[in-house]
Structures
1.
Amino acid sequence: MRNFPGVRLAGVMLAACVAVGAGMSAQADPTDNPVVVELFTSQGCSSCPPADELLATLGERDDVIPLAFHVDYWDYIGWKDHFASPRFTKRQKGYARAGGWKMIYTPQIIVNGMEDVVGSHPDEVAALVQQHEAAPAVAKVSLVRQGDRVQIRAEGVRMSTPGDIHVLRYAPSQEVTIKRGENAGKTVWYTHIVREWDVVARWDGTGVFEGEVPVPANEPVVVLLQAPKYGPILAAARLR
């Protein structure tokens, strides 16, 4: 384990990973193993509004953590997406390299850091979410808010796998009137808009990880435990 700025880490505890009996996984609460749905979108993309709407619908479920990463590579066509960041474009490209995909596009949805699907295809998205929800959890992340800090705890469930601790802060929703570009004249309601994303620590996958990060009180936050180099998302949790 290594320390990162702004994060206080407790020592790794000696508890071993907990084995789960075969009958227990069938009874698991899906909210304990939420599926992470990342939408790569842009205000300058004419085919994105249906995917943005789909993400808002997914946000009504407790078993799904939706995240909208606005990319910047459509800004050149006349409308600058003020939610976009080159770091989010870099994340999308990182997934493409890790998955061996030949291209990136919008709207692209990536489920649990593994499979991708066109974000405006609701049936295919639903099938992938169901598939990942049925898979047994390999780790668990839990969060506790204490004023302007969030305590993070991660532990293995079925195996010990190293993972990075990602902390994301997002805006729940915002309406935007687009004046230029492909969506000129449209007013679009965006949700789960990632505004800040940082990798704050790396856990070696043994024992229990504990740490805390500063987060303004009552601000939504998501924590991902993700395999290094844009690997699978092993576990996730959020505070809304």
2.
Amino acid sequence: MYRNPAGIRRRYEQLIRFPEGLLVTGDAGCAFNPRYGQGMTVAALEALELLKTDLRPLPFFKRIAKVVDGPWQITVDDDVRLHQATNAVNPKQRLLNAYLERFHTAAARDPELALRFQRVANLYASPSSLVTPGSLARVLRNGAPPAPVPAAESVPGGGSERSAG
């Protein structure tokens, strides 16, 4: 079990001022739900921002917010979808969730869509890459849910299956 199975995001970029000479990165700024496995990658991307010449706190925090925004939105949307928090879902999220359901169905049949999703999940690409015109066309072509198969037809020979023992 994880100590904190939820995500926590602190919005340092919204502060008016912050002490000079101090910066916040990693879990101190945004701790991801460990189930998504994105925390270390985001922390590494944040560390790259430390190589830039402008290390004043507020500009740094604004750059970090851009690093965190995509992965954070993925985890929040997925948490809402998984926990079926319908009161927290606005119409835009409902539409996006419906699209992603079709996207996942299509990705099971379309290796290009599966690759696009993996690139987003592994933070190589922006979540917006899942809704490009090319992705939309592929989802529409391949995203219909499979037709249900009656139980009697799902086992070769049409009979039932029992385990020995």
3.
Amino acid sequence: MRIGLAGAGRIGAFHASTIAGLEEVDTVVVHDAVPEAAHRLADEGGHEIAPDTDALLSGVDGVVIASSTSTHADLLRQAVAAGIPTFCEKPLALTLEETVDLVDVVESSGVPVHVGFQRRFDAGYRRAREAVAAGELGFLHSVRAMTHDQAPPHAAYIPTSGGLYRDCSVHDFDILRFVTGREVASVFATGANKGAAFFREAGDVDTAAAVLTLDDDTLVSVTATRYNGAGHDVRMEVLGSEGTLGVGYDDSLAVRSAEAGVDYPRGPQKWSFMERFQPAYRAELAAFCDVAAGRIASPCTVRDALEAFRVAEACELSRAKGQPVSMDAVGGVR
């Protein structure tokens, strides 16, 4: 199987290594808007080079879009127009309006598109989903979800990131739908800046919190921060009438107990999302090979991506207004 890869940056290089390690993949074809980056990655991994997107989309069985966020929409349109099964890192587009348009384009084309929400392939989150579906926890009344980065990204990334809700918490919004099987009915969100000035200058926040109400009245708290010096910390607690299940509570937990005599967790901590979710990324891209081969349907569709984006949009609107926002007031309803 020949897989094209658009993007030779940090996540692109990470994906290139993962894809090349899949048994089914014979060749990785790399393209980047910066030719030097593509050549460097190709030289390091023994991959082929595509000088432009037309060459990238020629003779491949599938394409992985891991380029800068602003390029996702155009590349996805080109891949779908060429009839090539596509894996696209989130977000599909920078705005809700363009995301809605892309959903129409993809669904009318019949071309399979798999969106990169890797937590759906994490063993802990999948176990939580199974427990909820089987009724092991009784009825759900609360969920706590968090994405806490160990350190902030480079300042230049923030103005194009879409903001903390769309960039980080959107993963929590997607996995919340995946685990509970429910939709978000309303949100109440806020944010703060206590770190570098470049967040505020870009109109963003470095720390955020939101209370979500699901369509069955389950209450959800979601927190995010760019500053968590203890380590990269991504967790979920699912609380039910008959029990509670936690995801992310292993020895790498970036929390220390204040109680005497407690030595858990023993470490070491994880320091990045790539380290935290490496097995999930591998499983995700192996699943994409199955999508490209026509063996399975997309495990995370463009419509799934739209719904997570809508929740992020509602959180930004709530933060700006300082009041709860009903999902009925957010565009993009299909």
4.
Amino acid sequence: MAYSAATRLLACVAGCLIAGTALAQGAKVSSPVELARRAQALKPGQWVWAPAIAPAGPVLVYVDLSRQLATIYRNGVRIGVSTVSSGKPGHETPTGVFTILEKNAVHHSNAYNNAPMPYQQRLTWDGVALHAGGLPGYPESHGCVHLPYAFARELFGTTRQGTTVVVSDSAAHQVAGAGGEVLAPNVIDGARDDEFWAPQRAPSGPVTIVMSRSDQAVVVLRNGIQIGRSRAVLPGDVDGTHVLTLGKDALGAPQWLYVGVAGHADEAGRPLDAAVRQQVRIPAPFYASVAPILLPGTTLLVTAAPLSQGATGTPLTVLSGDGP
């Protein structure tokens, strides 16, 4: 069925008005206990926000398509949870590891008749973004991740360009219980033809590291651009995904912290054991190159999925599944 431009625009405006009703359906709390309690009972359009739990540190957004939820972490601690609406059949939201490429509080769609997309945070150059939109309780977008209006505004003020966004379609295998999921001092010799280190491609910006068990490889991105790739020996008998962020301990020393993704919220903020790091091995020259850029805010994701191929030197989506 064909729809006129006016009909499409009215539909999108209505969706944003529906999202606006979430202003009365959101809650700001100040304790992890209250955040956890409210997060367990969210209905479509509802959200809970507790930024004071972790007032500073690197931010990571985790979108769980299977549960239609977005969870926000700062310094490895959960500070917000919101219901979402992702891509409908035929327009599925792509899964993978993304960085926020641009932010625009007052944005209109280039593809859908200038439809409003408030508090837009772009994930791909072909139109996938986080933004305020309709929230019927099931996937209904054209590929974007719709958020409640007020929550989209809070999130917009918390993230920055380059913030890491992880989109997953499986709640069952998000975090494994063991395995060496971090760059470690253990090193190996030798190299492969596809290995390189080119930090000049992105001299500055947030760093994201992705390790693939199936490829036995590691990719380093800075500001969304691939600046390095190497082989890595990773345990291959552990399913699931680990997400960590590099923060600081009580004495100010660098420390890897688990992000407690959906189903494993109790891991949030837990430091990585040194013994676990020893299970991962990478070439010594590559580790020496990467170590200086491992600053607070670095995000690490380890997955069993293969790394997707893409042109280096341009904004890159890693581990992206099929989607618009």
